[in-house]
Structure formats: C-alpha cells, structure tokens
Amino acid sequence: MAFDYDKYIRPGKLPHIWCPGCGHGIVMKGLIRAIDALSLEKNNTAIVSGIGCASRLPGYMDCCTLHTAHGRAAAFATGVKMARPEMNVILVGGDGDGTAIGGNHFIHACRRNIDMTYIIMNNNIYGMTGGQFSPCTPTGAKASTTPYGNPDPAFDVAKLAIGAGATFVARGTAYHATQIDKLIVEAIQHKGFSVVEILDDCPTTYGRRNKYRSVIEMMNRLKEVAVPVKAAEKMTPEQLEGKILTGVLHKIEKPEYTAEYAKVIERAQAAK
Amino acid sequence: MAKKVAFMQGNEAAAHGALYAGCKFFAGYPITPSTEVAEVMSVELPKVGGKFIQMEDEIGAMAAVIGGALTGQKALTATSGPGLSLKQENIGYACITEVPCVIVNVMRGGPSTGMPTGPSQSDVMCAKWGTHGDHPAICLVPASVQELFEETVRAFNLAEKYRTPVMVMPDEIVGHMRERIVFPEPGELEVIDRAKPTVPPEQYKPYDTQFGDVPPLASFGSDYRFHVTGLNKMADGFPTTKAAVVQAEEERQVRKVEANRADIMKWEEYMVDDAEVVVIAFGSTSRSARFAVNEARKQGIKAGLFRLITFWPFPEERLLEISKKVKAFITPEMNLGMCTGVVKGCIEGNAPVHGIFRVDGEPINPNEILSKMKEVK
C-alpha cells in the first residue's frame, strides 16, 4: 500500500513553493516517513526553521510549526526545547541560513548538546534571494555575487558540527532518498544534538550558472560523489579524491542539556 | 504576619517582580548594567522549576525567549543598550507574531558601546522605533526599586493581556540603586495570564479576530497545533500578501495597544493643579525633579511634577490639557531631548518647553532643575 503522506500535510497548504528539480521535497518526504516510523505525536512535535526556501517546509507540516527570523532557528528551537523538554524538536533549513547568519547559534546548539535534530539542506547557494554564494558554495563556483568564480573557501557542515560538539552527525543526499529516512530516524532517536546534512540541488540558481544542464545531471552528480562511510574505509586516498562521505559520520554519547538542567533544578530545590 | 521587607537593588527587584508575575523562563546574554537581573533569575528560577539559559548572544537570547513563551510560559530577558539594538529583529518578530514576553532594558549611555556603567535615558526612542515596520510599543520607566518590582509585574500583565512584547526600562541609577522594598503578598498585585483558546483544536486560528483584537494564544505542546511565522499572515497564521489582509492585520496589531491607551498608560501628577511651571521627568531624573519642586514651592514658585511611568504609550492627551494652563514645561532628561521632542509634539505650542540634557553619565541634580525654574517662571 502506498505511504499516506496526507496525515502529516496541512490540508490546503500545497503546492509548495519549491522549483521543479529542487531536492527539498525529497527531504520533506523523508522527514515525514521518519516521523511516521517513530510514531511521533504531531501535537508534541515542533518543526522550526529560519528563512529561505528550505525554511518554508514547516508550513506544510501538520505539527507545531515555527518559521522564524533568518538564521535564528536554532535559538528559537532552544527556547522551545528548554521550556518544554518533552517535545520533539526538529530544525530544518538551508546552508546559508544555518552556517552564515545562523553560524553562531548552530555551533552553540552543537556545543550544548541539546536534544534536537537539525536537518540542513545543503544546496550550496542562497536560493530564495536569487543565487548569491553561501559559506557552502564550492570555491570557484559561480553565483550571482561571484560572477568571476567564488574566492571563498567552503564550510564542511558535518565537520563543523562535529568540531562544535554535536554528538550525532550524518550526511545523505537527495539522490539517496531511502537513506534519508534512516538517517533522520536515527538522528531523532539519538539523545543529544543531531545534525543531518543532506546534499541537494538548486537547479534554478546554482545549476544554471554552473553548467549543470539538467536536473538529472545534478542528481547524477550526487550519486557519483557520494561514498558510504563503510565503503570508504576500503578505498585509497586517490579513489576518495573529490568524493563525499555519506551515512552516520559521528556518534558519541555525552550529557544532554535539558537532562543536565533537570539536575540543576533538583540541586536548587534540595538547597531551598 | 508582617510583610517581607528587604533592602535591595533595582535590578534584583525586577527579577523578583518577574517571579511574582509567574515568569518561568529566562534567556539572556550578560551585559552591564543589567546583569543582576540574569544572576537573580539563575538562582531563583530552578527553585520554582523554571528554566534559565545563558545564550550565545543577544539575538539568540531574544529568540529563545519567544520560543519559550510559545510553549505557554511567561518569559523574560534582560539587556542594556547595545543588547537592545541586537534584540530588535526578534522583538519585531514577537510583535508581528504576537507572542507575549518582557524585556528589561537597563539604560546606559550610547550609541554603540557608549558608557557601560554610566546612567542614561537614551533608549526610549529605540523602544518604539528600534525594530523596522509598524508595530505596537509598550515601555515602562519606573523610578524606584519598589516601582521597578511592581512595574515588572505589570509588564507581564500587559504582555499577556495584549499579546505583545513589553519593555521595562529603568535607567542605570534605578537599576543599581539600593532601597527599601516591601514585597507584596501573593494575590496582592493582580497577575494576568494570557487567554487560552476555548474552540476545538481543529477550529483554532491563532489570529482569529472574531475573538477581538487580541485573539487567544494556544501553547506548543498542548492539544493545539498551529503555525507561527514572521511573514504577514492570515487569521490561521499562514503567510499572505493579500493587500487587504495585510493592511487590516497591521492596523489591528497597532490598534490593540492604541485603543487601550487608558488601560496601559500610567503617570503621577505632583502639585500640578495650580502649577505654573511643570517638570516632566521619568526614572531617576524624576526624583531630582520632585526635590526641585519641593524647594521651588518653599521659595514661592508654583512648580509641579508630571512623572511618566509609561513612556509608550505617551500621555499626549493629558499633557495637552495641562499645557493650556501652565507658563512653561521643563524636561530634564539624560539624553539630548528625546522626551522633550515628544512633549513638544503633543502640546501644540501652548507653552514653551525647556530641556535640560545630560549625556555625560552624571545624574541631573535638583539644583539644575531649580535654576531653570527660576529662569522661566
């Protein structure tokens, strides 16, 4: 039987704003299947975003949804989770929103290890504002504000998250749709701050300027560059040149923030 | 039983006022001269099962406050000058999404880093015009430790009642002075909680005007699911660019405060009835002004004090009335004329307005005001 997405979609809020060939819809379907697999209660699930194409996702979802200011999703979400730790809090957003203007909130959410899941849809570009380069745009790539090629080095979102203290970091691609569900499920189940970077494509503002002639061509690139972490173990550095590791990249246990704060409350009340 | 009396700092009193009002969530970022508010909250909140979080920056602090408030809790942040500037984007977000919250901004010199420990009253325009776009503004300017406690309680009440951010803005002198405070008993001061929806969840709309200009607000994590966005929105909370809806919503948001000015505005008149010279002042400056008025009366000058307790909404109507009977106004303030400008704007030229402006971190003393009274009487 076909999966029933309608249960999680707000009636009347589709069609979405995303362009044909955009990977965000694939990620949303993955998120829905993950929520369903985990039987998360809609009333008890908050989906929080900042600004940008990816950040419109919560509006389509029949949960408690919060579309905030540019880059601030992690900080808003921290308030929600801190005030009501029993809620499932899921963040969604793009690479520009999360790593540029939101970079500070992102690294500190990682550091606190607060139990939330952040899905970063990395399409290497600012889509909604028309294709300006982001901190994830590859060096040399064309964007509307890098007409001669991007001089900036790019962030590796997963490494940034690991370095900042996130206790679960995974990476997938929009091509590998079924893997997305698994990564999101595992991320939500993880007790702590989990990051799932999903490489997806923006044919409209990135592909067009960077000689990807079709959506299929962009999708095929994702297929070609992705190497599962397990497979990578058996590959030589030469073979790994230009490849991107996918799967669960980092998973450790560390004290979770709201649980630690519950202990603060206990200590304060014992001392009263 | 005798009431609890303490000798306490203004900032500490603000924190205790918040606790009295039922505040259960604080997010902030340390900044002088407001830090004691955060410090007291970090001690007291966990005792009552509340949450304190020190965020990575002022922007994040304001964001977390809104997130916390959306789960149904009363939420507070405290800041000062540059912090208030950083918070403005998200204060605007709280305005358009109509999420109740309270910001205590202890005024220091500015602009920019200015004078971190020097007193100032120069954020009153920032309280109204700091964030972009049209939005309501409520700003309270208490003048004593006791009043800082009570006005913080009232700030939460106004925030909950009108679904809007409310600012409490003591100047640094009021924030840091120590005075006797008599704690009100529980129940002695009114404590208002936001209206919760009574409709079935499937019928709930967070901006449903059939419930008036201030629709009930559900909580995240309750039986109600809803969407919140900083975009202009329809009654159901979803974005719209439909001209008529956007116009009506923006007007409603401002109207919910403007139509209730009488409920929100608060001031004190001291010997104004027969006064020929009226000093208009707020915060610590109003204390110097009261002293000056008493001295002036002893010397046969018919002086009076009009003390602002709310700065926004500004009591324009009453000042216009008074302006018809007086020879002059004196407006001492620790800035270069912010209040003076607003007074001039509302009295229709009925009387001259003489400002006394200091931005050097020194308080305005009674003699400066008294001299001005002698000059203009």
Automatic annotation (TrEMBL), chain A:
Occurrences of domain Thiamine pyrophosphate enzyme TPP-binding (ranges): 51-198
Any GO BP annotation: cellular respiration
GO terms assigned for molecular function: oxidoreductase activity, acting on the aldehyde or oxo group of donors, iron-sulfur protein as acceptor; thiamine pyrophosphate binding
Keyword ATP-binding: no
InterPro entries recorded: 2-oxoacid:Fd_oxidoreductase, THDP-binding, TPP_enzyme_TPP-bd
UniProt keyword list: Oxidoreductase
Gene3D superfamilies found in the cross-reference section: 3.40.50.970
Source organism, top-level taxon: Bacteria
PANTHER family named in the record: 2-OXOGLUTARATE OXIDOREDUCTASE SUBUNIT KORB-RELATED, 2-OXOGLUTARATE SYNTHASE SUBUNIT KORB
Protein name, as recorded: 2-oxoacid:ferredoxin oxidoreductase subunit beta
Automatic annotation (TrEMBL), chain B:
Every Pyruvate:ferredoxin oxidoreductase core domain range: 275-369
Residues that span the membrane, as ranges: none
Keywords, sorted A to Z: Oxidoreductase
Keyword Acetylation applies: no
Keyword set includes Lipid biosynthesis: no
EC number annotated for this UniProt entry: 1.2.7.3
Name recorded for this polypeptide: 2-oxoglutarate ferredoxin oxidoreductase subunit alpha
